[in-house]
Amino acid sequence: MVIGIDVRPLIGNNMSGVEIYTKELLLQLFQLYPKTTFILYCNAAKKQNHLYQLFNQPNVKIVHTRLPNKLLNFSLSWFRWPKIDETIRKKTGLKVNTFFCPDLRLTPLSKDCKKIMVVHDLSYHHFPQYFSLRTRLWYKLLNPKKELQKSDHIITVSNFTKQDLIKTYGLDTKKITTIYEGISNEFATKTEQNITSKYNLPPKYFLFLATIEPRKNIQNLLKAFSIFTQKEDHDDIKLVLAGKTNPKIFAAVPQSQKKNIQFIGFVDEIDKPALYAAAQAFIYPSLFEGFGLPLLEAMKVGTPIITSNTSSMPEVVGDSAILINPNNPEEIAEAMSQILQPTIKKELQEKMDHQIQKFSWEKCAKQTAKLLSLSA
Questions:
Q1: Cis amide leading into 314 (omega within 30)
Q2: How many structural domains does the chain have?
Q3: How far apart are CA 351 and CA 326, in angstroms?
Q4: Co-location of 158 and 213 in the same domain
């Protein structure tokens, strides 16, 4: 069995949800199914040394083309050429049985090559205003509905996204399987002793950790925190915002509030568990998520969670978090007060211990392998 895999999501240094999903899932697949040959396809001007280091296993080969991306994407979209499985065959002499796409991409294949595509969310469809003109044009070129119709099977990372696909594109429910993302057991054991000094953290804080963009609803989070600090004497609790950000967001914060809010920027992966663990609560009032991997990260270390009652987030946290209307700052502020109560905190943590058992990369890999027809 030869499986082709599109690893274009791993080009570059970005490690957000899709990239983490791709990396963790593939590492599990390669380890669990050593008899299967996996051929990874990527296209980039420079050699991707990190891919060779990350996936240095005997059953893994990498096919790397160096075509100009704009030219390649234009050709893939308009001419459905080159066929990616044919490119792999010419480079390796191996015929690909199934091609796996961990993200929505242009992937023309030969008629006898099966294609399985993963869809994380349809945010580009529901919230186009939050995407750059370049990204919106990219999705026009991609034509997601057509690409999904050409797929033999589709994986969604939540039931919410599955239903969204059916409603938005009219796809057959039998063609779609939900497979949850995971969290590694090692995540909770990674610690950084000097986390407080490294990021200059306050003694008590609420944490928000994600790419800081409009869809993540930062403005309402800031409004809610302002209400929270004004209603009660909570000067000892700060709001820590972690992740890649736009300086304009901090500039828009009223001067009177800046002393209570701290932007710490990008956080190293190894530091995340300790950052979550030291927080009074993790607050994730996103407007729309296909899954929400940071929710699993917070659950894994037992940090109480406040998150939105919309899209996939209730599905991920179950009854182990306080759910809020992300468009209601007053409600978010009230949840901030509630989550500091010891009895509520303890109750949520007990429920987290049960909820987190639903998610692991090993489960994700084994369920994905069934669709790929792999055997150990």
A1: no
A2: 2
A3: 22
A4: no
Whole-model pTM? 0.94
> Is 132 found in the same domain as 44?
yes
Q: Please give the distance of CA 280 from its chain centroid, rounded to a whole number.
A: 23
The enclosing domain of 313 has a CATH number of 3.40.50.2000
Q: Where are the beta strands (DSSP E) in the chain?
A: 2-6, 37-43, 60-65, 98-101, 114-119, 153-156, 176-178, 204-209, 237-242, 261-265, 281-284, 305-308, 322-324
Give the tens place of pLDDT for each residue, 237-259: 999 999 876 666 666 677 777 78
Q: What pLDDT, on a 0 to 100 scale, did the predictor assign at position 138?
A: 92
- Model pLDDT for residues 288-341, shown as the tens digit of each residue: 999 999 999 999 999 999 999 999 999 999 999 999 999 999 999 999 999 999
Tell me if 253 sits within 8 A of 222, measured CB to CB.
yes
Query: Are 119 and 202 members of one domain?
Result: no
Q: Are residues 105 and 196 in the same domain?
A: no
Query: 343 and 235, same structural domain?
Result: yes
Residues 204, 158, single domain; the answer is no
The per-residue pLDDT for range 359-373, each reduced to its tens digit, is: 999 999 999 999 999
Strand-pairing partners, residue 115, are 99
Single-letter amino acid, residue 171: L
- Judged by DSSP in three states, 125 sits in helix
Three-state DSSP state, 189? helix
104-137 per-residue burial string, b: 16 or more CB within 10 A, e: under 16: bbbbbbeeebbbbbbbbbbbbeeeeebbeeeeee
- Beta bridge partners of residue 326, listed in sequence order: none
Q: What residue numbers bound the domain in which 34 lies?
A: 2-182+360-372
**Within this chain, do residues 152 and 236 fall inside the same structural domain, yes or no?**
no
Which pair of structure tokens corresponds to residue 299? Answer: 């659950």
The values of phi and psi at residue 308, to 5°, are -75, 150
Residue 119 sits in the same domain as residue 190: no
Share of the chain above pLDDT 90, in %: 78
